[in-house]
Amino acid sequence: MRASVIGAGLAGSEAAWQLAQRGVEVTLYEMKPQRFSPAHKAAGFAELVCSNSLRSDRLENAVGLLKEEMRRVGSLVMEAADLARVPAGGSLAVDRERFSSHITGALESHKNVRVLRQEVFALPEGPVVVASGPLTDGPLLEAIQRETGREQLSFYDAAAPIVYKDSIDMDKAFRASRYGRGEEGGDYINCPMDRAQYETFYQALMEAKTAPVHGFEDSKVFEGCMPVEVMAKRGMQTLCFGPLKPKGLTDPRTGKMPYAVLQLRQDDAADTLYNLVGFQTRLLIPEQKRVFGLIPGLEKARYARFGAMHRNTFLNSPGLLDQDFRLREGLYFAGQMTGVEGYIESAASGLVAGVCLAAELAGRPRPDFTDETVLGAMGRYISTPNRHFQPMNANFGVMAELPRRVRNKQERYAAIAQRSLDKIAALLPEL
Ligand SMILES: Cc1cc2nc3c(=O)[nH]c(=O)nc-3n(C[C@H](O)[C@H](O)[C@H](O)COP(=O)(O)OP(=O)(O)OC[C@H]3O[C@@H](n4cnc5c(N)ncnc54)[C@H](O)[C@@H]3O)c2cc1C
After folding, report:
1. What number of other Cβ atoms are within 10 A of residue 180's Cβ?
2. Secondary element (H or E) of residue 169
3. Predicted local confidence at residue 217, as pLDDT
4. Nearest to 106 by CA among 129, 127, 85, 78
5. Which residues contact 60 (CB under 8 A, 6 or more apart)?
6. Contact 263/226 with Cβ under 8 angstroms?
7. Where are the domains of the chain?
8. CA of 231 to the centre of ligand 1 (A)
9. Which of 5, 10, 285 to mutate to test the pocket of ligand 1 (most atoms within 8 A of CB)?
10. Which superfamily is assigned to 2-155+313-430 in CATH?
């Protein structure tokens, strides 16, 4: 059994490891140090291009649970993370060099892995996992476009924040669709502002600190996905004619059209997540909490993901990839380019793709992680039809609901975690 993996980043390293551990002879292609993307600086594998934090390590957090699932399946990325851990409270942060060198060493010395330090220009013959990351470009990008269709790629991650529905204060917000269109009761959750509230919000937005955006310096990239704070700079009223337009909406509490309205749109099939429509942003994360928290109804909002903008090539995966990150027999994608977001999520998709390709090559059924595990739920998120598909971090909103309602949040998350780890334990013999 043989397979190729393109890219030894977070996803490709994990995919190669999972394949090799299952007896597949892997050729792992990595273009560094011959060529570096604008974000990569070091020659080692699984380079953390920005922060050294792999985020929460607590089971009551979805990304913490995802880590534990990966540990139990024998993840190389998690083994390296645990070895390279540095103190960071409830988070798992790592010494990035130690992390990368453990992964590089493990793969280079694995009897089933052959490392080729060269740029890939075309998809190799035979079974492949493509894990060349969000900055994929040049001939490889063109080869991917030929496989998937040109229109199936997005080039910027211009995501608006997503909040948990149960954290929106519905004593202030109301359900409605503009001009009463859509479902009865209204498709959107609307956060109304009077003039004073809008002015306070506007002022805070104008003064808020923004993050530098890699690969986004070119002003033309803002066409069509303009950050809300950039649009606001055009004038005090601009947002009231754009994403905060109140026309066609009546606040049932006042019987009047509000001065400005932020609309939130359902983001997941389970109806637990809502995105802030038109609020793609470059604000720093604490600033997003502070400034958007000034909008009535969002004071206590919990964020499933924050707004982000950076160059990010990703597939329009829904309808293209299946839940195992497979385009067709023998061709899998993994990592940020599939529409998962974050280091651990990227590695997790590599794990699923590697395990599933190994099963396919062995002529066995591919394991079903189901949406009771974060590993499986991420695959379902990227493959489920979604007209507004944007990359997504691990979060409990994409997982199957519990069969019974658990009101207490801590207990609910503990029950979700237990169910997931039981599922992984049951799957282990076939993995
Ligand atoms: C600028 C930037 C900052 C980010 N910061 C964070 C952060 O702080 N926290 C976080 O959780 N996520 C962050 N992300 C998002 C994401 O988690 C990372 O991009 C993550 O590294 C994605 O993993 P990956 O395996 O998909 O791709 P990568 O880790 O980028 O791996 C891709 C690998 O493929 C190689 N490659 C590419 N093309 C070829 C080719 N043609 N031939 C051979 N090899 C090739 C590359 O050299 C690279 O080693 C950031 C993304 C970017 C772009």
Report:
1. 11
2. none
3. 46
4. 78
5. 410, 413, 414, 417
6. no
7. 2-155+313-430, 162-306
8. 29
9. 10
10. FAD/NAD(P)-binding domain (3.50.50.60)
pLDDT at 9: 98
Pair 344, 55: CB distance under 8 Å: yes
Question: Taken in order 419, 420, 423, 429, is the CA torsion positive or negative?
Answer: negative
Residue that has been written with the tokens 């990839």 in this structure: 321
What's the gap between Cα 6 and its chain centre? 20
Residues touching ligand 1 (Cβ under 6 Å) are 6-12, 29-32, 37, 39-40, 49-51, 119-120, 131-136, 140, 214, 310, 335-337, 342-343, 346
- Are 72 and 421 in contact by the 8 Å Cβ rule? The answer is yes
Query: What is the CA(123)–ligand 1 centre distance, in A?
Result: 19
The model's pLDDT over 208-251, given as tens digits with 9 standing for 90+, comes to 999 876 554 444 444 556 889 989 999 999 999 999 999 999 99
What pLDDT, in 10s, does the model give residues 254-276? 999 999 999 998 877 788 889 89
Yes or no: say if 16 and 7 are a contact pair by the CB < 8 Å rule.
no
CB 1 within 8 A of CB 361: yes
Q: In this structure, which amino acid lies at residue 197? A: Q
CATH topology of 2-155+313-430 equal to that of 162-306?
Answer: no
The dihedral through the CA atoms of 226, 265, 390, 294 has a sign that is: positive
Q: What's at 133, amino acid-wise?
A: G
The CATH architecture assigned to 162-306 reads Beta Barrel (2.40)
Q: Alpha helices, DSSP H only, in 233-329? A: 285-292
Sole residue written with tokens 């699984």: 46
Placement of tokens 């009897």 in the chain = 111
